[in-house]
Amino acid sequence: MIEEDEEFEEQCEAAVSDIQATDIVCKDCGKKYKTRGGYERHRTSKHDDQQQSQMPLTPSVLTEIVNNAVNKVKESRVFAASLRNEFSAYRYVQLEEGTAEFSEMKVLYDSYLKSGNTEKFYGRFYSQVPLKSTSFFPGLSRNAATLLATKVADCMLVHCRHIKSPDGSVSPSKTMLSDKEKAGLQYLGGYVFAQSLQKVCKNVYK
Fold it and tell me: How many Å apart are CA 141 and CA 83, to the nearest integer?
């Protein structure tokens, strides 16, 4: 049993040595962050003005977002056939820049690019667009327009995140754990092993 304990400890040490934490690297300036929150705050304060000027919301960009949302509904078997048929026949009419509806969409879009706060984005979007969904998406029934509003929120979020990380992900950078972190994991591994050993011994000697 002691030999097994020593072997297990060696395996734990080897596993801990192989564990690496992943830093998030800013693609524009190379600064590293250990948490997503820190990275997004950095992007907001240092780089979002540049992003918004490079990728503003235009009527054509909004049309692309809406059409993506329409296709998601049409392709999903979750929704009733009658609803999917309504979307199949639907042709989105592009909003004109300067209209109240487009201005509301632009404010929501710009606010998320600036803050990166998903919860606030959804809260603001749902309090404005679904309530007036038939104004944003004329030609659809109330139920269909409201459903489309929720899907547009999702697609707009995906679009904004793609702007923040064009490759669809953040750049990884591997960093070895510190000795203190390794020691903590070793202690945890030893504790778990000790508890498991006690249970085994109780079962054997019952």
Answer: 9
Q: Which amino acid is at 27?
A: K
- The residues near 23 (Cβ < 8 Å, ≥ 6 apart) are 32, 33, 34, 172, 173, 174, 175
Q: With 70 as the cut, is the pLDDT of residue 184 above it?
A: no
DSSP state for residue 26 in the 8-state scheme = -
Query: pLDDT, tens digit, for every residue of 118-140?
Result: 999 999 999 999 999 999 999 99
Phi, psi dihedrals of residue 166, rounded to the nearest 5° = -55, -30
What tokens does 38 get? 């820190």
pTM of the full structure:
0.58
| Whether pLDDT at 109 is above 60 | yes
Q: Is the dihedral of CA 129, 132, 137, 142 positive or negative?
A: positive
In eight-state DSSP terms, residue 125 is H
Rounded to whole angstroms, the Cα distance separating 14 from 180 reads: 16
Residue 88 CB contacts under 8 Å (≥ 6 apart), including other chains: 74
Q: How far apart are CA 192 and CA 203, in angstroms?
A: 17
